């Protein structure tokens, strides 16, 4: 029998459990947060906006510092991520204490699996873009009209986005299986999600829409608060305090939804691998 995935129920459960565990996530992973906050500031300071939707890196030293701090922050956060995958799958309990930096074989495998996933996405992306780039080059030599070139670009990048979306859905169980089972199992993860693409995609789209709505609400709230408190005219090293407030609140929302996707992975793993641990209401199966 195969587990029955309900889009609305799974998305709602991911959000609800994430709200319950957010305080624990912060308590266990606060050293990583201390590294990621200056990372975001360095990354922001390294770019200059040239239009509303385009910016360029003008300070490479700050950019490198931001990337380095972000990478080290992520490594420090790995033990917390691994434990929350386990908690979401009902395979472990939240530890006590004000710091959690346990590192063992499981965490090392999780680090390696994540790097492999990133490299795989990069190589797959390059492989998908090469035919498109060759076709675009040939069309440019043939003096094809601008409308045709625009259409080709739309189709090419649209196809790449669809390929990336497919991979993200089908690889959803790779990191949870490493965190929970302690094994890197690319084949098993892809096999288990076979036949569930559209439902799992629906869950991820629902969560993505929730994140977009949350970011919009944060922006509006920060804008109103900034106007009420007259923060917008004030500056700190060239930054308006209103912008700093918006960036800080947006970072909090992004941090929360990172936990949401961790919880989602743990819940999906539980439904496929340990349905006996589900509640009676959740343990529904399709024939």
Would you spell out the secondary-structure blueprint of this structure?
Layout lengths: L1 E2 L3 H39 L1 E5 L2 E4 L2 H29 L16 H37 L4 H25 L3 H8 L4 H7 L4 H32 L6 E2 L2 E2 H33 L11 E2 L1
Antiparallel strand pairs: 1-6, 2-3, 4-5
Helix pairs in contact: 1-2, 1-7, 1-8, 2-3, 2-5, 2-8, 3-4, 3-5, 4-7, 5-8, 7-8
Protein name: Glycerophosphoryl diester phosphodiesterase membrane domain-containing protein
Keywords: Membrane, Transmembrane, Transmembrane helix
Task: Give structural notes.
The chain is built from 8 helices and 6 strands. The chain has 287 residues and is mainly α. It has one domain (2-282). The strands form 3 sheets. A two-stranded antiparallel sheet has the order 1-6. The chain is globular and about 65 Å long. The N and C termini lie close together (6 Å). The model is unreliable at 232-237 and 279-287 (pLDDT under 50). This is Glycerophosphoryl diester phosphodiesterase membrane domain-containing protein. Keywords: Membrane, Transmembrane, Transmembrane helix.
């Amino acid at each position: 029998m195969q587990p029955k995935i309900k889009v609305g129920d799974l998305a709602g459960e991911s959000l609800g459990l994430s709200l319950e565990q957010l305080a624990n996530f912060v308590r266990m992973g606060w050293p990583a947060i201390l590294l990621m906050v200056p990372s975001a500031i360095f990354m922001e300071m390294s770019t200059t906006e040239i239009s509303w939707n385009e910016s360029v890196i003008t300070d490479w030293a700050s950019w490198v510092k931001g990337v380095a701090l972000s990478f080290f922050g992520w490594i420090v956060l790995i033990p917390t991520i691994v434990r929350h995958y386990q908690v979401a799958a009902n395979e472990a309990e939240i530890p006590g204490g004000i710091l959690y930096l346990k590192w063992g074989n499981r965490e090392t495998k999780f680090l390696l699996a994540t790097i492999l996933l990133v490299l795989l996405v990069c190589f797959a992306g390059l492989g998908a873009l090469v035919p498109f780039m060759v076709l675009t080059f040939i069309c440019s030599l043939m003096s094809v009209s601008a409308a045709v070139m625009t259409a080709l670009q739309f189709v090419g990048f649209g196809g790449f986005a669809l390929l990336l979306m497919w991979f993200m859905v089908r690889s959803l169980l790779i990191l949870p299986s490493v965190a929970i089972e302690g094994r890197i199992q690319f084949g098993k993860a892809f096999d288990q999600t076979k036949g569930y693409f559209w439902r799992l995609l629906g869950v991820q789209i629902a969560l993505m829409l929730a994140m977009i709505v949350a970011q919009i609400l944060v922006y509006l709230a920060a804008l109103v608060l900034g106007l009420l408190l007259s923060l917008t005219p004030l500056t700190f090293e060239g930054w308006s305090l209103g912008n700093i407030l918006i960036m800080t609140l947006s970072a909090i929302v992004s941090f929360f939804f990172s936990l949401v996707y961790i919880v989602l992975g743990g819940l999906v793993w539980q439904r496929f691998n340990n349905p006996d641990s589900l509640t009676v209401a959740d343990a529904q199966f399709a024939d």
